[in-house]
Design goal:
It contains 5 helices and no strands. The chain is an all-alpha fold and 132 residues long. It has one domain.
């Protein structure tokens, strides 16, 4: 029995659904962290911060942002592989009919949006101190 013989439409749907859930959780986590940092720097606007604090906050956010984006892109790659699996594995037509209805978050649109939000958060960190 080969992998293609044991692969069922339900398996494809379950894998796609799991990766979709992962993508949504990662975007929500990113939004919470980004809003939390922006809220923190705006709340502490009245008290002067040291440049080291801003550097540490910026570095931590960039590390988090890169890890988050790479994980999102991996989940999207898996989703695309699930959609293309029936064709690539020469599965019967009933297997191929299931993934056609699936949609995947566009990776390049996601990268652009993520980077714009990254820049916004970094600007919020650094510009909040300049306004004092």
């Amino acid at each position: 029995m080969t992998t293609a013989d044991s692969l069922m439409p339900k398996d494809l749907m379950d894998l796609f659904s799991a990766q979709s859930g992962t993508t949504y959780v990662l975007w929500n986590l990113y939004a919470l962290v980004a809003l939390g940092i922006v809220g923190l720097v705006q709340k502490t606007e009245s008290s002067p911060r040291e440049i080291e604090t801003e550097m540490i906050l910026s570095f931590g956010f960039v590390c988090f942002g890169v890890a988050n984006l790479l994980t999102i892109l991996q989940a999207v790659r898996i989703q695309r592989a699930v959609i293309e699996a029936p064709r690539n594995l020469n599965l019967p037509l009933e297997h191929a009919a299931i993934p056609r209805s699936f949609t995947v978050f566009p990776p390049f649109g996601g990268i652009d949006f993520h980077l714009v939000l990254d820049v916004f958060v970094l600007l919020a960190i650094w510009l909040a101190n300049l306004r004092r």
